[in-house]
Amino acid sequence: MPPIRASTKAGNPRKSRRKRLPMSFGSGGDVKFTPDPADWQRFEESYGRVLLPEMRGDLVILVDTYFRWQPSEQGAPFADDALAYFNRFEKAARKLWDVMLETHQTAMNGTGDEAHIAEHHETINVGIGYVQQQIGRHIKERDGKTSWRELLDIMQACMPALFLTRQYMTDQIDKYGFVEGHAWEQFVWKLKKLAERYSLPHGITKSDDPEQACPFVRLMRELQAYFPERFRRHNSSYAALAQAMGVACRRISLAIARHEAEKINASV
Question: Is the pTM higher than 0.70?
Answer without folding.
Answer: no
